[in-house]
Structures are given as C-alpha cells and as structure tokens.
Amino acid sequence: MAAGGDLERVFREEHGRAVAVLARVFGDLDIAEDAVQDAFAVALERWPADGVPPAPAGWIITTARRRAIDRLRREAARADRHAQAALLHARDAPPGPATEDDAVPDERLRLIYTCCHPALAPAAQVALTLQLVGGLRTPEIARAFLVPEPTMAQRLVRAKAKIRDARIPLRVPDEHELPDRLAAVLAVVYLVFTEGHTAGGGDRVVRDDLCHEAIRLGRLLAGLMPDEPEVLGLLALMLLTESRRPARLTALGELVLLADQDRTAWDRSLIAEGQELVRRCLRRNRPGPYQLQAAINAVHSDAPSIQDTDWRQVLALYDQLLVLAPSPVVALHRAVAVAELEGPAAALAIVDGLELGDHAVRHAVRADLLARLHRDAEAAAAYRAAARSTGNAAQRAFLEGRAAQLSGGPPSPARA
Amino acid sequence: MPQYLIAMYQPDGGPPAEVDLGAVMAGLGALNADIKAAGSWVFAGGLHDSTTATVLRAQGGDVVVTDGPYLEGKEHLGGFTVVEADDLDVVLGWARRSAQITRLPTEVRPFRFVRDDG
Fold it and tell me: What is the dihedral of CA A275, A280, A285, A290, to 10 degrees?
C-alpha cells in the first residue's frame, strides 16, 4: 500500500509546521523534535494498516503532543526539572488552533527565523532550516553538502544546543530588525538553491533535490510573507533559473551556455509562474537585489534567441542592481550586456578594470570577449585560467574544450 | 531568570587617540540606566590593562605564579556587564548598543549557572 510514500511526503511537508507548533507548546525545540519523530514512528506502524488519516498533519501534531506530555509526566515524576518546566510551559501555552491546517502560518515563520538567527553560523543556519523546516534527514543534508554524516550531525547538535543554552527565541523579529533578519532568511534559501544549481560535485539527483527543496522553501516563504517583494523576487529568480535546467547540460553532463541553449527545452510553466511573480513584486515599486535578478532572468526567458534579447532592458536592470547592491560580480555580469549593445571592446575595458582577482567567471567572460575580438591566443589563455580557478567539473571540461578549440582547432566563428 | 555576560575586548595599551572617552562613558552611562530601568541589570565592571594580570598554574603539588595575561594577543577582556533577560535577542539588543558606543568587539555568552550565596 502507498502509506510509506504518503508518510515520507507528509514528513517533508508537515515536519516544519509540527515542530513549530510543538516548540511553542513546550518552549523547547529538542522536546518538539523528539515528539514529532515519535509521532512519525507511530504513523509508520499504524498508517499502513489503518490507512492515512484524513488530516495527516493534525494527526501528527495531536499524536506528538499527547506522547510528549505522557513522556514528560513520567520524567517529571522522577523530579526532572527540565520536564517539569516543559509541562508548565505546555499548560500555560495559548491553545492555538494547533490542528487546523492553514490557520497558523506564523508558527513556521517563527521557526524559520530561529533557524536563520544571525547568532548561528551560516552553515548551521542552512542545515537547521533544511532539517527542521524542510524535514530533510541528517544523512540527506550531509550528502547534499558533501560533508561526512557525523560532521553534519555534530553541526546540527551544536546549533540546537546553542539555541537552547543561549535561549535564541522562537519569534518573528520586530519591525526595526526585520529587514536584516529577512535578508538572512532569503540568503539561506538562495544558498540552498545555488548549492544545488552550481556546486562542484556530488550526486546529480541529490543536487536537483536541493534545488527543489529551495523552491519549496521559497514557496513557503512567499505564502507566509506575500507582502515582502524580495520574498517573491527570490522565488521568481529560482523558478526562472530552474526553468532552464533541461537545457543547461548536455546528455554527457557538459555545460551549455545561455547563448547556445535549446530554448524550446525551457520549462514554460516555470517561466510563466516566475514572470507573473516578477510582475507582481515589481508593481510594489520596492525593488531589491532578488527582484532585479529575477527581472533580468525574465527578460532572457522572453527572448527567442540571444540576438533577439532585449539587452537594453537587461542593461537598465543591471544599472539598477549595481546601485542597490554594488559589487564587482554584478559589474561583471553587466559588462556582458554592454558587449551585446556596444561591442566586445567596450565590455573588455570594463572587465579589465574590475578588481576581482583570480575569478573563474571573470576569466571566462574575458575569454569570450577576446575571442570575439579575434585575439585567439589571449582568449585561449583566459579560458585556461578560468578552468584552473573553477571548482566545478562540468565547467572545467567546458572551459578546457574552448581553450583547445582556440589554440589548435578551427578558428572561432566571428560573432557580431 | 537567565543571566548573560556581555564582554568587551580592548586593544592593549589603551584606546587610540581619536576615541572620545568622555562620549563613550556618557553613552555607556545612558545604556546602563536603560538596562536598570528594564530590570535587567546585575553587575558591571571595567578591568585594568592586561599588563596588570597575574597567571597561576597548578603544577604537580605546587602552584606557579607568573606575570600575565594568560592568553597572548593584542586585545584582551577589558570590561563586562552581566544582565538578566528572558532570551538572547533582548541581550543582543543591549550588546548591540554597547558595541556601537564603544566600537569594541563585544561577546555575549549565557551563564550556565550563577552562585551569589557564597
């Protein structure tokens, strides 16, 4: 019967809500997590025989709460002060519609802000968010980040101990701290996505899963904070990037540049959803870095080819992005648009003026511009420099291929 | 209620010349008044320079006394405030103000336990 698959799905979808509700009830994240694990263990026994209950999330939360109280009572009877405190907390906790499915979205929001608290190291924020909000298990998170499982387990244990001992609260931040704290949450989700999208190695399937997980978290945030345009911008950015996945790699796993991608392979429904989100957030007229990056991606996803791209629009968006989030990396990407509008020489002057050091993308952009200017030897050298400074195997193979083509192979076709 | 240490780390040899100590002390005075008004105040103190420190180490049956400080470095613990608060965010609020006033690296740590009854 399908209860096993259902259970796994319910675990992922409802873990965050269940932990958040119970953490509020007991005032303790460890107790909440143990109780939820407990309830899923009971479900694993019963659901295959009894069938999946009509409100699985409510069933999990109710069961977890009941079992936690039973256990705490036994421990409290043995004069366990921690258990006594948790029971008192549960007695005084506001009842809250703990079993209603959509009535308490803010519970998860509190949990997210706790997981992404600036007092925790960024790597711990990511791991905690995936585990507590995303319902991923420690081995899955370890595999996704190419970290040995004991290392990841220890990272999670330490982070939870700090939440407990330093009393990092389960709370949505006040208005005045919200911009900084929200930025930290968005950074965690985007880091999960980029790790899945570009990271240097590991199992492809695990990586794809990470992208899906980030998008799921992005959808959750967009549902919880529909009035924050940067939240919508981040989701749009991830959807539009994800829409190109089918065209990004060859069957052999080699990278395909945007210019060379088969645009008919792009996922039209993701593009439609992403573009709608871009329109919705830009209407609020509170642009931010994620919205602008999403808007740039939206322009690309509108274009039938690289030549037919509205580069003026792309450049205008990069100009805005450079004002809001000035960085040499943004300036580098802006130079690509300049190349299309004013030619490779103008772009090369910009790229050569950037202080980026030994940066793989900078080398690659320089190489492309030099090739367009028919300076093949310099272009090949730049491709080789790019290959040396990237940690990504697919990218390295691609860049070395280009370098070989320019040094020995047929001359590169001229491009306008 | 849980207690926290807010510790400030100072460069050895006193503050740089451009620091307006009067303004810093006035700022800290106002901050301390607010901590007291919030009922969070426990104790605060400033330390003499780390060159005044003395280190003791048990070795065998003996204790060896040497000139300190214990940790080598160019910055040392210079002063601290102990506060009481329900959670870390409240303390980070005080510590943030303190760091803005003193411009010193500031560390917050929760007490595991407190004894004030000898």
Answer: -50
Cβ atoms A22, A68 nearer than 8 A? yes
What is the least distance, in Å, from the CA of A85 to any CA of chain B? 13
Count CB neighbours of B29 within 10 A: 11
Residue A165: its chain B contacts at CB < 8 A? 110, 112
For A31, the token pair is 């107790």
Adjacency order of strands within the sheet including B3-11: B41-46, B75-84, B3-11, B106-110
Which has the closest alpha carbon to A67: A107, A96, A26?
A26
Does the model's pTM come out above 0.95? no
pLDDT, tens only, B12-57: 888 888 889 899 999 999 999 999 999 999 999 999 999 999 999 9
**pLDDT number for residue A391:** 74
d(CA B70, CA A256): 57
Residue A409 predicted with pLDDT over 70: no
Q: Return the amino acid letter for A342.
A: E
Q: Kindly list the residues from chain A whose CB atom is less than 8 angstroms away from the CB atom of residue B86.
A: 167, 169
CB atoms B88 and A171 under 8 Å: no
Smallest Cα distance from B110 to chain A, Å: 5
ipTM over 0.85: yes
**Which residues touch B45 (CB under 8 Å, ≥6 apart)?**
B79, B80
